[in-house]
Amino acid sequence: MKLQFRINPVTLKELRQLVRSRLILWGMAVLPIVLLVTTAIVLSSEMHDMSPMEVTYGKGLGGGPLIAVAVITGIVTCGLIPLFTSIKTAIETSKTSLGLEFTTALTSAQIATGKITAAAIISAIAVALAMPFFVLSYLMRGVELVSTVVVPLELFVAGIVMSSLGLLPACSRRSIAMKIILLVALYTVLPIFATSLSAFMTFRSWHSGGTSSSWSYAGMFFAFVVPLLMVAYCRAQAAAELAPPHTDFARTLRITQIVMFVVGYPLIFADEDPCAFWSVMWTWIAGMIALGAASRPLPVTRGAVIHAPRSWLLRVLAFPFATGSMPSMFFAFLLAMASTSMLVLITGSTLHFNDTRRIIVLICECFALVAIAGSIARVILDTRPRLAKSLGKIAAAYFAIINGLQLLTELDVMDRDTLWPFPCCIEGVRRIPNGHLVIAIVMGFAAICFVMVATREDFKRFRKP
Amino acid sequence: MKVEVTNLVKTFDRGFRAVDGLSFSFSSGEVIGFVGPNGAGKTTTMRIMSTLDTPDSGDITLDGVSVLDHPEQAHRLIGFMPDDLPSRTDTTVDEYLDFFARAYGLRGAAIRKAVEGVEEFTGLTEFRDRTLHALSKGMKQRVSLARALVHDPAVLIMDEPANGLDPRARIELRELVKALGENGKAILISSHILSELEEMCTSSVIIERGRRLNAEAAVSAETWIKLRFLPDVNETALPILLETPGVIAAESSGNGWRVKTASGDEAAAALAEKLFARKLVPILFEPEVGKLEDIFMHVTKGNLA
Questions:
Q1: Angstrom distance (rounded) from CA A154 to CA A360
Q2: How many Cβ contacts (< 8 angstroms) between chains A and B?
Q3: How far is B237 from chain A (nearest CA, A)?
Q4: Would you call A13 and B76 a contact, using CB atoms and an 8 Å cutoff?
Q5: In Å, how far is A112's CA from the nearest CA of chain B?
Q6: Which position has the higher pLDDT, A362 or A79?
Q7: Tens digits of residue pLDDT in B203-242
Q8: Is residue A322 within 8 Å of residue A297, measured between CB atoms?
Q9: A179 is in which domain, residue-wise?
Q10: Chain A within 8 Å of B52 (Cβ-Cβ)?
Q11: A106 contacts chain B (CB < 8 A)
């Protein structure tokens, strides 16, 4: 069998255009010079600050330069490159030229993938240009070898995530001016919030025991799994935005949501501190689904219409699960929030209205639960009746197992720490409050950006014909 | 390949009906002129045919296969040439065509073969390394045509291809379209330049306010025939023409004559016979079977949407 490798045509096209861009070429030429000058300045400063004793005992240098090189490379991979590629995409999607790509065999998902891949390759080149300076930090005996690998890798992954996030406003159906305003806001404000995630990192170490050789599950999850899931989600969302008629744009999106949930959920139990991880997971999933819900409404599927209950009241209650539009999502959220609040009151928790951090996580959990349940319901309703029954049973079994495990974890926490008899995720917030706040703010800010992009159109569509 | 458009309806915001129950069909080897005033629904129809838009009702089939139900099959069979031209500063002609060849699913050596083939057909070989931005409008139009042809579609849909072209570029485009029709492609082409369409189209579809107009009724009653005789006869031909049975009217036209007669091949043959009987032998005898401009003006009311 002949193995044939087929490069995504969009990636190839984007790369051809990017290498022809003077801005990119000049940027790549200037980056090593900037890094060289910065490294020299920081090194000389470090040497100047060393005491005679440290010089005598040969104290290593390089910690400072590593941070300086990482910051500059981070600005390039997480800010400038995503901004440039996203503005380029925004301009392209505003013209009719992109429509021609939909008369070909290309799908909107392939177009989104191609754009993300091209941005990733350019980011990889930028990181590669910075690699000698990372290695130099190691050679000066200031940092461990693993840091010279992990830091550039994380910068590269973060760059891909930022490029993917930029696709959302770039592919939305707004004017070019609004898209550029949103992109500039995204790439200036979001990195500031993302940098403040370090508060979370200091509160809960990314590496167990402080050594980078042994990663905790949470550390691995947030360093690599979360970014990859975010990229997958943004890709699906952008593909949904770009999708031409005749395609079920929402299908990929729903499947991505479910994969995020199915993959991420069980990882909670693998962590040494399930409650803390659980609550962070919920905050994150809720944020991602809020982004999705804010970006574009999902039409009510044919399957949902067929299965719609006869009773008016039941139909009203079931409707949020049949559409992902903003108004129905908020309705579902209020519904879930009310029932969860009741549950918390009944269990006699110590939750108070002024306990903002815990309330944020509770809200996020409700939102995520409703949204993911809606997605699963839609996938089941979209399939044939016999298959729908089987899928429904599998979903029910999965939820039963997961929730059983959740109950066991709750009991375990209550057993160990009897002073805190409230849901495990709230216990998690108590343990890492700053981390939750930062994630909630980052996700909230991004969601507000995308609500600005899409809400008006959503409301127009969400009207009786 | 038979393309059938059946009862197509498309309504936009505020209830504006751009296409209103439009039906027509055409087959391989036919070049169909798609004519109508601005806002008649031509571009909307073409976009629906190219899967870039969806109708409210109706269907478009290619040999019985619905474009709406199987857009992926339609993509392989249809080449769409929109009215806007490619213009990028960072892409060469060759790269542009290479991208679309890949996007249509061509692989390996087939990509180069297809790209070089359409470059040669459209006369772009010597411009292949130029950026799109640096090309003239006529050349950009050729690039657009090459892009639509790169996957060798059976059906070609061209939206205002001659728009803004100079006379030479128009003639060249006309020859390309004729050649494509002769190669067996089914072509739907819209244009406001009716004389151009008349020369390259085998028939035409006239629409107004999204509805097809009955052009056949407009030309069924009578038709004009162009005539020219040898110079010595030509100048004295008018009285004889007017006296000839079957001739309704006659007028000079350039260096010859136009006579109005009953429409149809039989009427034309009868006229020729009568002219020969009167020793009036024409060196040009060309029936103007429904001049498109006349038909257009006759059937359309100038209603703008």
A1: 28
A2: 65
A3: 57
A4: no
A5: 14
A6: A79
A7: 888 888 888 876 654 444 567 788 888 877 777 778 878 7
A8: no
A9: 6-195
A10: yes
A11: yes
Is residue A153 domain-shared with residue A272, that is, in the same domain?
A: no
Task: Please indicate, yes or no, if residue A30 is contained in any of the structural domains.
Answer: yes
Whether residue B185 is predicted with pLDDT greater than 70 in this model: the reply is yes
Question: A69 CB contacts (<8 Å, ≥6 apart)?
Answer: A35, A38, A39, A130, A133, A134, A137
CA distances from A215 to A210, A429, B107 (A): 9, 22, 43
Q: Which CATH superfamily is domain B2-213 in?
A: P-loop containing nucleotide triphosphate hydrolases (3.40.50.300)
Q: What 3-state class would DSSP assign to A391?
A: helix
DSSP per-residue string spanning B3-66:
EEEEEEEEE-GGG-EEEEEEEEEEETT-EEEEE--TTSSHHHHHHHHTTSS--SEEEEEETTEE
Do B249 and B303 contact (CB within 8 A), yes or no?
A: no
How confident is the model at residue A205, as a pLDDT?
Answer: 35
Residue A302: per-residue pLDDT: 47
- Judge: domain B216-299, CATH 3.30.200.20: no
Q: What interface predicted TM-score (ipTM) does this complex get?
A: 0.72
- Enter the pTM of the model: 0.68
Say which of A16, A101, A246 has its CB closest to residue B103. Answer: A101
Q: Indicate if the pLDDT at residue A306 is higher than 80.
A: no
| Residue spans of beta strands (DSSP E) within chain B | 2-11, 17-27, 31-35, 57-62, 65-66, 78-81, 155-159, 186-190, 203-208, 211-212, 222-228, 247-253, 256-262, 284-288
Question: What's the pLDDT tens digit per position in A332-373?
Answer: 454 455 445 444 444 444 444 445 555 555 555 555 555 555
